């Protein structure tokens, strides 16, 4: 599953 | 976490704090677009809903809370505490022309059709254009206070550093998010004209003013 990069970015 | 990402976050933080301090110290929000600040508060609110559902790291949680708190504090100062100094006559950009299309796009182009994911996507798209009311206001009045230009420069640097961060992550972590990258490019491009003026005028010690 591809997690969105934004999830750990601000 | 790489150095570009960290520098980007700190630049973002610096921008937010410079703006808050400017308003607080001068007891005035003249020249600041309240609409842009409301849009940024909306951006943080819709993006950081995952504070309730997903723990990433203490750094992540603390920074999100600081960004959110500062965004709301700024809106409060502009529309409540120093309302008398708010330059509403020049803050005439129609924010609904941004929010409505961006909302539609978030519904159509997202990673997953779920409420949190759509709101996250909405916040990414909205952030890329949220500065437009502020830039519009400057183009309308033809000038900006130097401290306001420092704020905009720090905000633009944050975006530019995030672009480098994404290139880094693509090469070293084989990781990329097309939605964030495209929106980030759009956002950075919007600052290019301003960067040019900042470097050729403000850094030479001149006030930023546009030809009539």
Structural class of chain A: little secondary structure
Helix-residue proportion of chain A? under 10%
Specify the overall morphology of chain A: rod-shaped
Mind summarizing the main beta sheet of chain B? 2 strands, antiparallel
Q: Quickly count the helices of chain B.
A: 8
- The averaged pLDDT of chain A comes out at 66
- Total E-strand runs of chain B: 2
Strand content of chain A: under 5%
Number of strands of chain A: 0
The number of helices of chain A is: 0
Specify the helix fraction band of chain B. Answer: over 70%
- Principal-axis shape of chain B equals globular
Largest sheet of chain A, if any? none
The computed structural class of chain B is mainly alpha
The figure for the number of domains of chain B is 1
The whole-number mean of residue pLDDT values of chain B reads: 96
Query: Beta-sheet strand percentage of chain B?
Result: under 5%
Radius of gyration of chain A: 7 Å
Order of strands in the sheet with the most strands of chain B?
1-2
Spans of chain A of at least 5 consecutive residues whose pLDDT stays below 50 are none
Write the layout of secondary structure elements.
The complex is a heterodimer of chains A (10) and B (212).
Chain A: no helix or strand
Chain B: H1 3-26, H2 34-47, H3 58-81, H4 96-108, H5 115-129, H6 132-141, E1 143-144, H7 146-172, H8 178-200, E2 208-209
Antiparallel strand pairs in B: 1-2
